[in-house]
Amino acid sequence: METRGFSTSGEIFRKDSRIIIARNRHHAVFIGVHLKYDAAGYLPGQAIALNSVSGLWEKYLTGGSSGTDVCTGIMFDDIRDMPVNTKATALMLAKGEVYESLCIDLDSAAKVDLGGRSVVDANGTTVFMF
Fold first, then answer.
1. Where are the beta strands (DSSP E) in the chain?
2. How far, in Å, CA of 57 to CA of 23, rounded?
3. Within 13 Å and on the Cβ side, how many CA atoms surround 30?
4. Adjacency order of strands within the sheet including 126-129
5. Predicted TM-score (pTM) of this structure
6. Distance in Å from the first CA to the final CA of the chain
7. Is 99's pLDDT higher than 90?
8. Are 60 and 49 in contact (CB under 8 A)?
9. Is 65 within 8 Å of 80 (Cβ atoms)?
10. Is the pLDDT of residue 17 over 80?
11. Measured distance CA(19)–CA(73) in Å, rounded
């Protein structure tokens, strides 16, 4: 009887994936968005905004223009290595509970835009609920 070893594909089980949802994933609201090209890509937890001129989503920027200064969601997907000058499709978290320490560019103005609040749980972890 031949014995075969167990193997997995690294393409399926990524260990570098950031888990940003703190709890209650079943209450989260996900929306598909078209992202503007960004050479650095987009990480889960990135605050994003809708550019009212291009109609594409991009990184939220305090003091930005054309709507990029209004945070409307948090990136859920990990989008890296975007082909040059193309847009990508991804999931944005429009409502949910995320680990605040894993959010990128989530400043006080973005928190107000999202209508959320920060709560420290019994373990001392700050959770942003919006």
1. 29-35, 47-50, 57-59, 73-75, 88-95, 97-99, 117-120, 126-129
2. 25
3. 11
4. 97-99, 126-129, 117-120
5. 0.83
6. 57
7. yes
8. yes
9. no
10. no
11. 16
